[in-house]
Amino acid sequence: MSQEERAQAFVGAFRALQTEVEKVIVGHGEIIAHVLTGMFAGGHVLLEGVPGLGKTLLVKTLAEGLELSFSRIQFTPDLMPSDIVGTNIIVEDADGRKHFQFQHGPIFAHILLADEINRATPKTQSALLEGMQEGAVTVGGASRPLPAPFFVLATQNPIEMEGTYPLPEAQLDRFLFKLRVRYPAIEELNAIIDRTTRSRQVGIERVMSGPTVLGFRELVREVPIASHVRDFASTIVMATHPQWELAPDVTRRYVRYGASPRGAQALVLGAKVRALAEGRYNVSIEDIKALAAPALRHRLILNFEGEAEGVDTDILVGQVVESVEAASVERREPFLQ
For 132, how many CA atoms within 13 A lie in the half-sphere containing its CB? Predict the structure, then answer.
């Protein structure tokens, strides 16, 4: 199959999967597209929103549209690491001899829903770190690979703070995107009521297998990116660091720590998926700009002034992107060509 045929197959598969999810989920078109982008980019996605907006349902519906195993973990304050990764248990064979046998935890699935991830203690949250980064977990000194593809979708409630443990920066940084799930408009709310208060159930077709997802992930990484587009992405990330000599005023005023190199990787990989999903085999400046907020909003740590003034990181990222664009025009750099 030629490169062009593979790209066209990706477009068809992406749209087919998006259509299946939208059979159930109402009004979150951009969120669905970003979740699929994160999956095909090979990263993990954090969904933030108040209860009842369909975050969990979105993840379950996505799993139904894929020929992949699915597991859900409801995070609670008393959840232990062994409840996630599994543990060695003593079993007795037919001859009466006892030996240790590994009991797999729910993390051994292709798609893992970490529901209300900020309700678990830091010790339990850290049980996901190795799996998210390495695609394997270590139990009893033995490293055990997770099934491929491995995709974590986590949800958290930003309002209720009692009994929650904020995610450490190291774990937040391992999420490719952080998506904010908004409240629906009245037309969308009416559509939700119509779909969920009738007896008719919506059937979801499985449109993609695991090997297909892995093949598309390889295709995404083969998408070329021009040097000036790559430079635009890296400049945006550098502009989030107040110590950088060319950092904009808004960064110096409100930001304590900027995005890590993972932020630049998320920008470029997400932009490649977006370009491919739109039938283009090259990354544009618009692709980078469209994914700046999802890729960077959780990677910025505000300083005291930013926290005190309640600065929205989405607005801050937008201002950083605008400043990079303006500076590139002044210096006549080829970012916008």
Answer: 24
Does 218 map to a domain?
no
Average pLDDT estimate for 307-311? 90
* Residue 158: predicted pLDDT: 79
Q: Which of 167, 191, 211 is the last residue of a domain?
A: 211
In terms of domains, do 171 and 228 share one? no
Sign of the torsion angle spanned by Cα atoms 110, 115, 116, 119: negative
**Domain tally, the chain:** 2
Same domain, 159 and 280: no
The boundaries of the domain holding residue 297 are 223-336
Long-range contacts of 317-321 (CB under 8 A, 24+ apart): 317/240, 317/292, 317/293, 318/292, 318/293, 319/248, 319/250, 320/236, 320/239, 320/240, 320/248, 320/250, 320/251, 320/292, 321/236, 321/289, 321/292
Q: Are residues 148 and 47 in the same domain?
A: yes
pTM for the predicted model, two decimal places = 0.89
Q: Which of 142, 141, 109 is nearest to 128 (CA)?
A: 109
Q: Which amino acid is at 233?
A: A
Long-range contacts of residues 251-254, Cβ cutoff 8 Å, at least 24 apart: 251/316, 251/320, 253/305, 253/306, 254/302, 254/303, 254/305, 254/306, 254/309, 254/311, 254/316
Average pLDDT, stretch 120-141? Answer: 84
303 shares its domain with 254? yes
Gap between the Cα atoms of 21 and 28, Å rounded: 10
- Output the six-digit token pair for 36: 């699929």
- What are the beta bridge partners of residue 132? none
Residues near 229 by Cβ (< 8 Å), separated by ≥ 6?
271, 283, 284, 285, 287, 288, 335
